[in-house]
Known about the structure:
By secondary structure, the protein is mainly alpha-helical.
Amino acid sequence: MxxxxxxxxxxxxxxxxxxxxxxxxxxxxxxxxRVQFFxxxxxxxxxDKCYQCHSAESGKFMGxxxxxxxxxxxxxxxxxxxxxxxxxxxxxIMEVIRYETAGFQMPPPRSGGKLASSIISDFENWILDGAxxxxxxxxxxxxxxxxxxxxxxxxxxxxRNVAPPQPNDSAWPKSEIDRFVLxxxxxxxxxxxxxxxxxxxxxxxxxxxxxxxxxxxxxKKFVAEWNSASGExxxxxxxxxxxxxxxxxxxxxxxxxxxxxxxxxxxESTGKDVNILFPQAWRYRDYIIDAFNADMPYDQFIREQVxxxxxxxxxxxxxxxxxxxxxxxxxxxxxxxxxxxxxxxVDLADEQIDAVTQGFMGLTVACARxxxxxxxxxxxxxxxxxxxxxxxxxxxxxxxxxxxxxxAGSLLELPAGTNSSFLPKLTRAAYERKQKQLxxxxxxxxxxxxxRARNRSRGTDDSFSLVRVTTQVSELRNELKNYTSGGMPxxxxxxxxxxxxxxASTQPFRQRAQxxxxxxxxxSGFVSITDSPLFIRGxxxxxxxxxxxxxxxxxxxxxxxxxxxxxxGRKELAEWMTDVSHPLTSRVMVNRIWHWLFGAGIVDSVDNxxxxxxxxxxxxxxxWLARRYIENGWSTKALVREIVLSRTYRLSGxxxxxxxxxxxxxDLLWRHNPRRLDAEAxxxxxxxxxxxxxxxxxxxxxxxxxxxxxxxxxRRATISEDKVIRASDTFRxxxxxxxxxxxxxxxxxxxxxxxxxxxxxRQATNVPGQxxxxxxxxxxxxxxxxLARRIVGEVYSSQRKTxxxxxxxxxxxxxxxxxQPVPKLDLDDVADQLTELYWMTLSRPPVKAEISAAKKLxxxxxxxxxxxxxxxxxxxxxxxxxxxxx
Length: 886
């Protein structure tokens, strides 16, 4: 087993308490009498009472604690350091040997019980004297249990070149995918169910590829052509044409882009302690959607998001796109109220490490921040090598910061010509007024700082005004950065660039920080391209040796490129992850694609391919898909097309007790998994059925128009009203404002992700509260009324029957004008009206029982038939079938 031996001279000098506070001086050796006290009073007790559970000799380090070295006691175990030299009251060892806390008593009662009071007094005096201890040796770092054997995990092995097997039933498969699936089913003697009915299949594939229901007229035409097609090959050709049309539609990129936004933890505010808006986040959103619609090769997609600023560009448009792509690294949650600037920067890098390694590789590298990974072959030193890459990266997230401008961030300026028309223009006079206001505030701030110094010398200190003005200065500076001196808005974006290419000082990190040599925001210590110190237990105030930034050799068979001293290493990291020999990158993405189409991945833990994750149900199929993905130029559309054309995808979702008993989790895919639609698809389906959906992409975003600042405060009325945070807008849900901790109410009811972490697989709950929400939502009520008027108009109004040029607004009455005349109820027309309603909502005609039930309800509303039709429409929208895929 590999142990990470930590030797931190700076840590020892501070921790031992034997030297003056100034760093850089040698530690004074303990005097002979102090050593003798330790050897006669302390060491024998430790050896007799403690070493059996906390020493290298016994091989036991319970609680991660070693008590057989000086450094081990200073660094401590799972509960932290066990002593603080000079301070027995703050030393954990005194608490446990005094038996002050039940269940936290050492030595334990079963091993002799509490020490004698004289011995406890000796320990107290020893700590008061500075805890002199001549023992050498490194502190114990708990063995992760993830030694060389963890490298044998299936996901860390090269992707195999697997030939599709030959099942016994050679007539059933339509593709190589089917051969893998049927071969596994035959091995367990489980037959697959029948194929899905044509309308079920059409609704499934249309939602899966676009997030929208099929157009009713197209659905009717499809089923007619299906029934008249010449055999199975004719139906296959018809279905393939539908798939190609869906893949070519702009709605494909919007739906699949939203899948990736979950992985990218997309949101339009910082979240956490103080929730500040990201007005430019929408550019990254649009980049994702455009990338999926253009079928950007996935390896290029990775390179642009991790290192777009470092890639060559042929023109300004390409350069702008690549800079916007790096928004992936800037979009994550941030604790802007963090008062320790060094802690903020290290936490920011940690969040980026997690997003990159888990998002692209399904590997939880961030778990090794404080100690070696418990399950995977990632040491804390490996983590620190990654950390240097991101600590050498300047993250431009663009906010005025928290109170006092704490942890403010700038933006990237994009090449000229990039759209910025959504921002309000300032007249020259308005710009100059803001500039003058900033100058006055800066002068006031200068005076307040001087006044604060005078007050402190008098023993008084009123910092409220200083904080207020500092905050105003930061916010105004941030606003003016978005404009030219003439008041024209500049095209800005969230993203990253490398920090300045200066050689980091070899002076110890702690010394530079204390002496004010680090520069940057509040002396964070990371202002240029640099290597990171290994932080003991992840604590930024306990730096040990520096670890050269780099890409650790985590896997056999793929060599990590060297990182030039003048760059952060993000470009090399992106190249390493997209190397065709990388064992994780292609596997993780094809598994996510499979999950998004089937509701479950071949590897169920879609974001964790490590030892603590799941093994694949079809390992051969996973590797075949991964190689196929690369061979087809990393084309996501090609892979999606191949999967949805397979017979496996086209199976019915019907239940079979025989198959269920043999494979209750449907791991072997004997049927298609019935599942609930995601939140956006449910909302978009309601708008589509009501005829109110606007398919045009809105310019920027509502949060972008709201501008900078916190959620609440001066902009509370702007960004908290229903039209922004809730669901009253009629464009697609992917374009709704989605601030952290303020998700749209409708989407939040259906498991919308909060954007705080990588989430390749959403929760999909089905609870009674969702139906109640649909029945009581104002949004659902207004859309049900539009749908009911549309249905009545479809049957009774010849004028509305001719207004069908836009199938997404056919027969629409977006204004919901209640003065439109509605004819009296005619029960002879109910069947036709209800049939139209069912096609619009459920992509099928109603059965006789449904028609009968609707008539009974409408008869109750004979004097007010519109209210009756609204009730019918709302009931269908609130039904489980409406929000489910079979």
